Amino acid sequence: MSKSIHESTPVVAAPVTADIVLQVEGLQKYYHQGLEKLHILKGVDLVVHRGERIAIVGLSGSGKSTLLHLLGGLDAADAGSVWLNGIDLAVATDDEICRLRNESLGFVYQFHHLMADFSAAENVAMPLLIGGTSRAVALEQATSILARVGLSDRTSHRPSQLSGGERQRVAMARALVTSPDCVLADEPTGNLDEKTAAEVNALMVELSHELRISFIVVTHNLDLARRMDHVYQLHNGLLLKDEVVR
Fold first, then answer.
1. Exposed (0-12), middle (13-18) or buried (19+): which is 120, by Cβ within 10 Å?
2. pLDDT exceeds cutoff 80 at 3
3. Among 32, 136, 155, 170, which is most buried by a count of CB atoms within 10 Å?
């Protein structure tokens, strides 16, 4: 990313349409550190269409994870708006946001966050169970999506019995089991070796295309970033189109 940031193009928000899953306008976030007020996000705009794959790159501490938390309704912005399927998260109730997260979003993190005492199938089924699906149906759907990520023979295994790559595939299956509109992934291959990371990267792209699920991926992995449809750089609180990574 040797290109000057001034040569990048600011992202322009598009009007809301049925094809838009996520839309962000003027998003700002502050943090207080002692007496200092840190302006982390200074007016982020972004539009994500159905089935679109977006990578967000940037230096550590630039606010990438903060942005992802705001997009997922896990934190509230100080200014600006986030619309998820046309619903403004700033005015939605806590119950509405929880329902939207459960039905419309999937989450994948650098660490898999699987529950040690549950099998792979039970871990994957958890979002469905939380949403009120019966255990039998939830496990059936979990088994089906585990087969899609190449783990049909690992459904009864607990996390300690799985390799790092297998655990991350289970985490991905958990994110996909509700057939969400968008998956938010924060350094999804950060703890994997190069070969395994490449396999997981390829799987994300394949599933996004096959299931027409949008992906927003925060990553330092430029190989993964290049597999996305668009790459943005978060720099000095602004989200800018990055043509160098492409």
1. buried
2. no
3. 170
Judge whether 77 and 28 are in contact, CB under 8 Å: yes
Tokens of 176: 């996909």
List of residues 6+ apart from 147 with CB closer than 8 A: none
245 pLDDT tier (thresholds 50, 70, 90): low
CATH class of segment(s) 5-241: alpha beta
Question: In which residue are the tokens 């000095």 written?
Answer: 236
CA distance 49 to 124: 26
What does the H/E/C string look like for 59-120? CCCCCHHHHHHHHCCCCCCCEEEEEECCEECCCCCHHHHHHHHHHHEEEECCCCCCCCCCCH
**CB 81 within 8 Å of CB 24:** yes
